[in-house]
Amino acid sequence: MIRLEDISFAYPGSPKILDGLDFELHQGDRIGLLGHNGSGKTTMFHIIMGLLKPDSGKIEIFGKPAVSEKDFTLVRQRIGLLFQDADDQLFCPTVLEDVAFGPLNLGKSEEEAVEIARKTLDRLGLSGFENRITCKLSGGEKRLAALATVLAMEPSVLLLDEPSAGLDRNTKEKLVAVLSELDLSYILISHESDFLSDIATTIYAMEDGKILTDKELHLHRHIHAHPLGTHPHSHKP
Ligand SMILES: Nc1ncnc2c1ncn2[C@@H]1O[C@H](COP(=O)(O)OP(=O)(O)OP(=O)(O)O)[C@@H](O)[C@H]1O
Ligand SMILES: [Mg+2]
């Protein structure tokens, strides 16, 4: 569904952020992406969406080269990007208008778009938020509303840039349930390894401008118990 080949990219006047990056996403893949702050994860998402142009390398989306703005207009109709910052995603006065905007833009009638928006909000536990003013939502509510705007467009692929950041445990569980039910391929950036291991089938790391696809990571949890386990304590490695 997505193929990046030998992609290099530098912001003007800055050193290379992506350096010979290769990556493929196939139908049904649920890939988790880890990487330290500033390693280029968000930059890679923006390159896939055509928001940034690589300095060199090839992008193929759904089997076709993506080069021109016209190619990327089609890409953006089928790949949904959840921005790292929800404020980049939400721009209408009310939640319902924001979520209905995408379907309307894709040619749905107003009634259809509102129906899709209401259903999507309901799925994310946001029924009752329809007429709330978007910019006055809490951080976690904004993140869910932003996800609703992406899901309402019924994309074939999701790029999720730290979807769980700032969510409480219950909301995170809800998000895990919603994402697990989706019959979609996705790439999920997160710094939370528990969240990634709940939801991704393959986990890769980004390092030195590349995705280390030959080094799949295997996240695992440890459960342990001992008599003083209820008291605050630490463990030496
Ligand atoms: N518009 C820009 N102009 C110049 N440098 C930028 C710009 N946007 C990002 N950068 C730099 O590029 C590098 C990669 O940024 P990017 O946002 O892709 O990292 P990231 O892996 O998503 O990090 P994080 O985990 O903190 O979100 C960082 O050093 C960042 O400061
Ligand atoms: Mg980022």
* Oligomeric grouping of the chains: single chain
Q: CATH topology, what is it called?
A: Rossmann fold
Mean pLDDT: 92
Low-confidence stretches: none
**CATH top level?**
Alpha Beta
Q: Specify the biggest β-sheet.
A: 6 strands, mixed
Estimate the strand proportion: 15-25%
Q: What ligand species are in this complex?
A: adenosine-5'-triphosphate, magnesium ion
**Elements, N to C (H/E):** EEEHEEHEHHHEHEHEE
The CATH superfamily is known as P-loop containing nucleotide triphosphate hydrolases
The dominant shape is: globular
Structural class: alpha/beta
Number of strands: 10
Work out the radius of gyration: 19 Å
Helix/strand layout:
Layout: E1 2-10, E2 16-25, E3 30-34, H1 41-48, E4 56-61, E5 64-65, H2 69-78, E6 79-82, H3 95-105, H4 110-123, H5 139-151, E7 157-161, H6 169-181, E8 185-189, H7 193-199, E9 202-207, E10 210-211
Parallel strand pairs: 3-8, 3-9, 6-7, 7-8
Antiparallel strand pairs: 1-2, 1-4, 4-5, 9-10
Helix pairs in contact: 3-4, 3-5
Can you walk me through this structure?
The protein is α/β, with parallel strands linked by helices and 237 residues long. Helices cover 32% and strands 23% of the residues. The protein has 7 helices and 10 strands. The protein has helices at 41-48, 69-78, 95-105, 110-123, 139-151, 169-181, 193-199, and strands at residues 2-10, 16-25, 30-34, 56-61, 64-65, 79-82, 157-161, 185-189, 202-207, 210-211. The strands form 2 sheets. Strands 6-7-8-3-9-10 form a 6-stranded mixed β-sheet, with helices on both faces. The protein has a 4-stranded antiparallel β-sheet with strand order 2-1-4-5, with helices on one face. Strand 4 (56-61) and strand 5 form a beta hairpin. The longest helix has 14 residues, at 110-123. The N and C termini lie far apart (41 Å). The relative contact order is 0.18. Adenosine-5'-triphosphate binds next to helix 1.
